[in-house]
Amino acid sequence: AANALLVVNNIEVIYDHVILVLKGVSLHVPAGGIVALLGANGAGKSTTLKAISNLLRSERGEVTKGSVNFEGQRIDGKTPDELVQQGVIQVMEGRHCFEHLTVEENLLTGAYTRKDGRQAIADDLELIYTYFPRLRERRTSQAGYTSGGEQQMCAIGRAMMSRPKIILLDEPSMGLAPQLVEQIFEIVKLLNEKEGVSFLLAEQNTNVALRYANYGYILENGRVVMDGEADALRNNEDVKEFYLGLS
Ligand code: ATP
């Protein structure tokens, strides 16, 4: 596609040299898009995100086939730090704030690859607080003592501090009450619309993901079994039966 920002082409991932987990996954995210990666527990959503952001090595996983392109350039093989500098950042499942740092210190760690100076970083911190007023209120609290929702906000805010073009967001709804899930997704939508950040988000909560995404891919057993516009997927009988019934 002409306006593709991120293109994943036929990637295969093997864990521990033998366990084939992704069996040729292809997808793309258009510039300015919110794309949902859906599927049951263990379908391969997290693995796909980690393959893109090159975070598989510490889990003894390896991309053994296929390619990943970002803005028309091959990015597979780049280190996670290089990817952050290019504008590709992942927010891992389970939030991953530094528990012993304050919320504000956590946000500032997100700026570690930047070279544009103190004032720009201070301005962005202020910007993040306008999207996440709750984080401003909690800015001097130790992150480990904030709520699950606040930690998810902190993790997204921290990613925003790197000035990303795309955020790979793993299971943002996990463990959060429905009202908070809505709040998080509303902010994702705002960041997309106002800051131009694209999102590839992995979600088991098909219902909420398809309300906020423009497009979705459904993974089963390491393969894409269906994809389409979010509205079309929401009205698809199989999707209704297998993925929307329970969430
Ligand atoms: P979840 O919602 O649980 O994260 P998922 O769709 O993101 O599910 P993955 O976490 O990508 O799925 O896992 C896909 C498959 O790979 C599962 O069968 C899982 O057991 C396996 N797997 C994940 N990590 C490893 C690992 N480090 N070593 C071996 N197998 C793994």
TrEMBL record:
All residue ranges annotated as the ABC transporter domain in the record: 6-246
InterPro entries recorded: AAA+_ATPase, ABC_transporter-like_ATP-bd, BCAA_Transport_ATP-bd_LivF, P-loop_NTPase
MF GO annotations: ATP binding; ATP hydrolysis activity; branched-chain amino acid transmembrane transporter activity
Record has ATP-binding as a keyword: yes
Organism superkingdom: Bacteria
Gene Ontology BP annotations: L-amino acid transport
Chain ranges passing through the membrane: none
Matching Gene3D superfamilies: P-loop containing nucleotide triphosphate hydrolases (3.40.50.300)
Pfam families noted in UniProt: ABC_tran (PF00005)
Ranges in a coiled coil: none
Protein keywords: Amino-acid transport, ATP-binding, Nucleotide-binding, Transport
Protein family according to the UniProt entry: Belongs to the ABC transporter superfamily.
PANTHER family reported for this sequence: ABC TRANSPORTER SUBSTRATE-BINDING PROTEIN, HIGH-AFFINITY BRANCHED-CHAIN AMINO ACID TRANSPORT ATP-BINDING PROTEIN LIVF
Descriptive protein name: ABC transporter ATP-binding protein
